[in-house]
């Protein structure tokens, strides 16, 4: 396979992964349920929290900044935080171990079921994400998992699992994850700020 063929193959693989996601109504229902959870958090004055490792941390950060900054148009800032500050992470890892880096922050920021933790893991088995969800459940924080590869251990641990089907590599899974995050934000904005979407 030459470079041109490889590039085309990658685009087609990405397209097929998204098509497989769209083909199952259960996946669309899970995204709608995710949007409902996020809407409830925002309207109840809760905190949107997100975590993940590597590229999934980047997605967690992207998710948070769209709320505190803006998505498509100007509107009030919405409370959201991604657990990504290096000083926090290294402090907790040094004192409690890397498996606890997100769990400690859930304990710090989470108050109860008005809050939402978005736990992102392409394998569904990241130990520090698992510990974060366990910490959330102890204090009543609702949890959504963005997962891949069948969902792993997190699938049965989170309150709502959004699992990318078919894809076996993290890049293809993450490409669907970021679409889900953007679409959830849009769905919530359409309810809260309908004037921004009046012409669409």
Automatic annotation (TrEMBL):
Residues 38-198 form the SIS domain. It comes from the Bacteria. It is found in: Cytoplasm. It is an enzyme of class 5 (isomerase). Keywords: Carbohydrate metabolism, Cytoplasm, Isomerase, Metal-binding, Zinc. It catalyses: 2 D-sedoheptulose 7-phosphate = D-glycero-alpha-D-manno-heptose 7-phosphate + D-glycero-beta-D-manno-heptose 7-phosphate. GO terms for cellular component: cytoplasm. Catalyzes the isomerization of sedoheptulose 7-phosphate in D-glycero-D-manno-heptose 7-phosphate. Belongs to the SIS family. GmhA subfamily. The reaction produces a racemic mixture of D-glycero-alpha-D-manno-heptose 7-phosphate and D-glycero-beta-D-manno-heptose 7-phosphate. This is Phosphoheptose isomerase. It comes from Rohdeia mirabilis. The gene is gmhA.
């Amino acid at each position: 396979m030459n470079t041109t063929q490889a590039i085309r193959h990658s685009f087609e693989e990405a397209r097929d992964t998204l098509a497989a996601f769209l083909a199952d109504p259960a996946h669309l229902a899970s995204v709608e349920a995710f949007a409902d959870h996020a809407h409830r958090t925002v309207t109840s004055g809760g905190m949107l929290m997100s975590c993940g490792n590597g590229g999934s941390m980047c997605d967690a950060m992207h998710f948070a900044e769209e709320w505190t900054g803006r998505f498509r148009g100007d509107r009030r800032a919405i409370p959201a935080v991604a657990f990504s500050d290096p000083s926090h992470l290294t402090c907790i890892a040094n004192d409690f171990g890397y498996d606890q880096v997100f769990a400690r922050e859930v304990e710090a920021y989470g108050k109860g079921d008005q809050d939402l933790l978005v736990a992102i893991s392409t394998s569904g088995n990241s130990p520090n994400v698992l510990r974060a969800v366990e910490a959330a459940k102890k204090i009543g924080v609702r949890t959504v998992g963005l997962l891949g590869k069948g969902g792993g251990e997190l699938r049965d641990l989170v309150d709502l699992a959004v699992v990318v089907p078919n894809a076996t590599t993290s890049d293809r899974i993450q490409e669907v994850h970021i679409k889900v995050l953007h679409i959830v934000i849009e769905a919530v904005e359409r309810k809260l700020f309908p004037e921004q979407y009046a012409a669409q």
